Amino acid sequence: MQRNTFLKALACQIVAGGALLAGTTGAWAQVPVEVQFYYPVAVGGPIAKTIDGFAEGFMKENPGIKVTPIYAGTYQETIVKALTAHKSGTPPVTSVLLSTDMFTLIDEDAVVPFDNFIKTDDDKAWLAGFYKAFMMNSQTGGKTWGIPFQRSTVVMYWNKEAFKEAGLDPNKPPTNWAELKDAATKLTKKDASGKVTQWGVQIPSSGFPYWLFQTLTTPNDAILANDAGTQVKFDDPKVIDALQTWVDLGKAGIHPPGVVEWGTTPKDFFERKAAIIYTTTGNLTNIKANAKFDFGVGMIPGNKRKGSPTGGGNFYIFKKSTPAQQEAAFKFAKWVTQPERAAQWSMDTGYVAVSQAAYDTPTLKKYGADFPPALVARDQLPVSVAEFSTHDNQRVTKALNDGLQAALTGTKTPAQAMKDSQQEADRILRSYK
């Protein structure tokens, strides 16, 4: 309404011969470029506050741009909202979505590659500065579709007090499957009635079952999908063996039976209901703030090799926004991932800072020296693999998750569960081969 009034008034003044044209340029320049920014809140801690702070800091330095963070729920809810908005023609300008959503976003023709905005030597150096492990889920077909932001690997947390009580060395966590089983057996506690009060080990299987499963398939030297995202190997004997190992931990009575909640796993750790847990490094700050005991953070125990999947979210720029909005979103993504801010983000959240340059900042150097657990996820990057991702990722991932949960609840054997998941994934991916 105000804009129409302004235009009418302007027209009248021009008609009246008022030489205001030079003045109008200033009026137009004051209309900021609006950047709607969808952000998923998926893990604990005061993350939204940090994001608001980033938006405010950026706008202070870039008064011509207005960034509006919209907190859109979990990663799954955020991609659904973003794609629904894209289909109705009103997508966000930018969003942090899972790095594994890359193929889906390309298939939906929803995003533009970042290469479109890389113009200066500084831009090129910035793009080349990200850890290679994080670019595995960010680039395909010679283009960069996502920019690493809140990235992670899965790490193991252990309660050092529980280790001492069980007669284990609190500074020597399990480094392989045999040691993990042995430690978890000693760490499992029962009350007089035989009810377990402390599980030896807990690996969550809701929320992101496929991702936590990769902490077993990777050490067993199995890769779940090809780089092109067109083929999966769920029925590989090494994959079935990894699932059998997970199931066997439950059968041995040292891991909770059935499906274990992703969201409550850190809380189970604080409350001493689990002595060893696997979860994202993105929970590190949350655990540091809430665990009332000395704890350790270590790399995922190996078997045939060491390794963990990378994980977490990337910035994407949506296609149906205006060129000015896209440029503004690029500027924001570049600003947020500068070394000092990436370092601050890592300290505030526990996520891995996305570049070596961030770890070279005095702030993160000092933090890492004072709190070495903050460096574990980064140090695991050289043996990390891409997070599982394919075309039609939501449906293929669901086929895998359903199989995992069927095996963990005992409704199917690991071999049958993976065979069924393979058939369903092959059916979904047929048209992409």
Automatic annotation (TrEMBL):
Keywords, in A-Z order: Signal
Annotated compartments: Periplasm
Signal peptide: 1-29
Domain of life: Bacteria
Chain intervals for the UniProt region annotation (Disordered): 412-433
InterPro entries: Bact_solute-bd_prot1 (IPR050490), SBP (IPR006059)
Listed CDD domains: PBP2_UgpB (cd14748)
Keyword Signal belongs to the record: yes
Biased composition (Basic and acidic residues): 421-433
Cited SUPFAM superfamilies: Periplasmic binding protein-like II
Family: Belongs to the bacterial solute-binding protein 1 family.
Protein known as: ABC transporter substrate-binding protein
